[in-house]
Design a protein that fits this description.
Layout lengths: L5 H11 L3 H10 L4 H10 L1 H8 L6 E9 L2 E9 L2 H4 L2 H17 L4 H6 L9 H13 L4 E9 L1 E7 L4 E9 L3 H18 L11 H17 L1 H4 L3 H19 L5 E2 L2 E5 H12 L3 E10 L11 H9 L1
């Protein structure tokens, strides 16, 4: 095995998308011959997927699909947005969403064991081949939620944010789809942590009150006010907290004279029925995934040493 240069490794990485250690080994095994190294990596395509699995996958696609009364919100991550925009990934994500709707797997691991919709092999097998042979990146089925009932969805910016809304209504899905989509768009835009005030933990409100009272104690204009006055002011501020952090109490983005709940009630009345928003699920692509920023030249140089 001959020694290889940083430049050769970088060139092979650029042309194949394979990690630096694999590129170094491929070049060393083929005495620096670039074409043979590429062929070597292609032959090892499936084996390289395990090595890629440690790399951060924070790009990708969030999708939402509803078929009849069954819907799914799904996030699949890739390492780069370039890979996420390929037809291979888009088709894979679509097939995985259909599989979830059809098979109702319990979790991601169970999903990987299911035969993929429209295919003859499992989701996991397709994932491994796609990552190792075609995309040459770490690909992760990160999470999904499947629901049944009257559902509406919204996808923002080609898959950066996805929202699925569940409604309780005697009206048809077609009648309420636009209303549900408006609620989903509201969630995508303002990302309220709670659906309504009933969901806000009591300890969260108590903590907010403590903070507000402490702030008033530090304010010369407020410090001398009677305690009952300060408590009343705090109650008013708690109301503002609800209006900012509870989706149904937020000002409706399309008409800020109404709350989201007010908009839903008015729309339901116009349709001659009732509508209750019972659940909102929001995924933002890559949220919580640590993105590692590296200087490629420095990293390769360190690896060579």
């Amino acid at each position: 095995m001959g020694k290889v240069s940083v430049a050769e490794i970088k060139e092979l990485m650029k042309s194949t998308g394979v990690g630096m250690m694999d590129c170094k080994k491929a070049l060393e095994a083929n005495d620096g011959d670039m074409d043979k190294a590429i062929e070597f990596l292609r032959e090892k395509g499936l084996a390289t997927q395990a090595k890629k699995s440690g790399r951060a996958a924070a790009e990708g696609i969030v999708t939402a699909v509803v078929k009849g009364n069954v819907g799914v919100l799904l996030e699949v991550n890739t390492e780069t947005d370039f890979a996420a925009n390929t037809d291979d990934i888009k088709n894979f994500v679509s097939a995985v969403a259909d599989t979830i709707i059809e098979k109702n797997p319990a979790d991601v691991e169970a999903l990987k064991a299911e035969v993929i919709s429209g295919g003859s092999v499992t989701v996991g097998e397709v994932l491994t081949e796609l990552a190792g042979m075609k995309i040459r990146e770490n690909i992760v089925i990160r999470r999904f939620e499947r629901r049944e009932g009257v559902l509406a969805t919204y996808i923002h910016n080609g898959g950066s944010i996805g929202v699925m809304v569940k409604l309780d209504t005697e009206l048809s899905a077609d009648q309420v789809s636009a209303i549900g989509k408006d609620v989903a768009m509201q969630s995508a835009a303002l990302n309220a942590p709670y659906l309504n005030r009933a969901e806000v933990p009591a300890e969260v409100i108590e903590k907010e009150k403590e903070i507000m009272l402490a702030q008033m104690a530090e304010d010369p204009k407020m410090a001398n006010k009677p305690e009952q006055v300060r408590v009343k002011i705090v109650e008013g501020k708690v109301g503002k907290y609800y209006s900012e952090n509870c989706l149904l109490e937020q000002a409706f983005v399309k008409d800020d004279k109404l709350s989201v709940q007010g908009y839903v009630d008015a729309a339901a009345k116009e349709l001659g029925g009732t509508i209750a928003v019972t659940e909102v699920i929001r995924y933002e692509r890559g949220e919580g995934v640590e993105k590692k920023e590296d200087n490629l030249a420095d990293e390769v140089a360190k690896m060579i040493k």
